[in-house]
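FW: tagging you since you asked about this chain on Friday. Here's the raw sequence from the shared folder, copied in full. Didn't touch anything.
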Amino acid sequence: MVSSRYVFPVAIILALALVPTVIHSYLDSRHIDGFSTQKLPVALGQFSSKKSNRDSGWGQEVFDSQDWIERIYDEGNGRLVRLFVARSYDHKRLYHHPELALSYGMTMTSQGIVQLPGNESVSANLLVDERGRSVIMYSLLYDNELVEDPISHQIKDSMNLLTGARKPMTLFYVSSVKAKSTEDPRLTPAARVLELAVQSFRSQSAVPGTQ
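HL: got it, structure written out here
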């Protein structure tokens, strides 16, 4: 039996607890910012590209993304760079070891966060394979800002995520083979493609809205 004096406070607490449930489960309110992977140019700097042969439903199945691209970029010297970009409202699908899906079968170790040497001050997660020849980098963007620690970011932004319209996170993922095992990963074509892709994406015009 609950005392009548506690009825009102308990009702308030229960009502507040239902807010995120209503927003995300029933209304599924999502913030539409006008940015899209489809707007990324086919040519980035000196790099031209072609589409990969990835199945059209793969991004939705693996990353819960309806807005994604995968292209193979070539500077003309035979050193190919694979660029995968996806947007999703399910952030964990993007930041939780994307290499397991995008570089399946490879044995890699994390080298932590590195700063790319270009003018955009782009930070990236760096991974290398056991032989030191392949280089993989990925960056995460949320609300047009780079996210280095997604878990810490979600904790800090938890109230907004619980009570406001969900905002998408964007994953930029590049992989390529280094010319030499001693080559600085930050100076590779992969790093340059990553920087150019992030720069191009962030330059898109925002069109705020919700659905």
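FW: The two ends are 42 Å apart (CA to CA).
HL: agreed, and Residues 43 and 49 are 6 Å apart (CA to CA).
FW: great, closing this out.
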